[in-house]
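Regression check, guanosine-5'-diphosphate case 494:
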Amino acid sequence: MPASVRDTIFALSSGPPPAAIGVVRISGPRAGGALKALTGKIPAARKATLAQIRGTDGEIIDQALALWFPGPHSETGEDVAELQLHGGRAVIAAVLSALSALEGLRPAEAGEFTRRAFENGKLDLTGVEGLADLVMAETDGQRRQAFRQLTGALRQRAESWRSQLIQALALIEARIDFSDEADVPEGLIAPALQIARRLEGEIAAALADEGRGERLREGLVVAIAGPPNAGKSTLLNRFARREAAIVSPHVGTTRDVIEVHLDLAGLPVTLLDTAGIRETDDPVELEGVRRARARAGAADVVLWVVDASNSADAPVLSTSLRQFVSTADRPAPRVLVVRNKIDLLNSGKRRNELRHQVYRSGELSVQTKEALTKTVNKRLKKRSEFEFNLNELEFVLSALSGEGFDALLAKIQEYAGDYLAGAESALITRARHRQALADALGAVRRALARDLATKEDLLAEELRIAARALERLLGRVDVEDILEVIFRDFCIGK
Ligand code: GDP
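Current build output:
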């Protein structure tokens, strides 16, 4: 047991004050003593009790609900006390300071309560990750996925696979132990291989999810890009329906990448507003442009916004767009061209734009659409190998008035739906899970592929490797390196 576990820790576990209620938690061997020091008593286990909270000088700080959870039947597995205080700044500060003054107590580090729960076997590592995701979940889909993980969706499968591997190992080891004896049943290896074959199918099936579970954690990433002043920030604000980005008439104000998380009918979408992409010598802007390119290059969808009222933006599918989305080592994101500011067009031009919109929504004949696509691609050919299918990829709207916006929103929602289909039920939600299961599968396959049936010790070794990969997944072995990474994302008091 690490030395830190012997300390008694405390923290404000609810949100920042002021709030109606502030919850302070205390965990460790001195939790009971601390409760007694502050309230004068230890209430009955797991029963909310009204108590007066006193500071070190004996003055009453607050009247609060006190709860007592003796270990091991507590969240952390240790003795835990909880105070539900009035959530004012001064109340919380006074209570935390009274706790600090007690011998053997110290403020908790980020994630330390959960870490103790893990160390005391209350949660496995996939459960810890599910808990972290549940706290961070922004949409219903993410919440359901996180809750499944917290309550053991992956853990139960991994434990079952592991125990079957142990069973297969036992058969093989029995065969090894008795190999000198003439009448040892030869039939020990066959059932072991049968178990391995079944596991191979099951683990491979869990891995064949095309990364859906990981995607639900991230969401569909949509980058908004295009020339300066085209209306990118205004469009982002229309999505977010709040002032998330600074909308300004001056060129080049959006230097950094602004991120807005959206919940589109339960589907998570991350919108990125990128710096105005243009040639510049200003080192600060240059850095903004570089970051914008990198971030949007990794997006699933790029909304390329142009000012339909500005003839300088007219070569819509310009070289800068090509540079922007052409990434050597990964599939290019989908590009939707957004012709913005149609409210500024005179009625003739506007009719023209909206007529184009009809093309795009598929009401004209296929030949016409193909002809249009061909023309654009011919123009593009001169500059690149980049081919566009213009059908349904261009939107005409006014970010300012909202006209035409719903069609774009519906398209993105449709993309998000396709992209995240089946994600909630996927077992794997992190790259770490995928790696561990791939390791296990690799070992099982090696055991089955080579003719190991006569080399029992090699066969046993592969199955042991597979079992160990599953133990790593659950956090039973090789845990130190990953713990730091996982708990880094936790907040204080969790
Ligand atoms: P960005 O540089 O691409 O982020 O552009 P902004 O969103 O900052 O917009 C630049 C200017 O264009 C601002 O003055 C906006 O109010 C204006 N603007 C943006 N969208 C529209 C629109 O649809 N119609 C009109 N009339 N003005 C717009």
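Comparison notes: Residues 228-234, 247-249, 254, 276, 340-341, 343-344, 398-400 surround guanosine-5'-diphosphate (CB under 6 Å). The CA atoms of residues 197 and 276 lie 55 Å apart. No diff flagged against the previous build.
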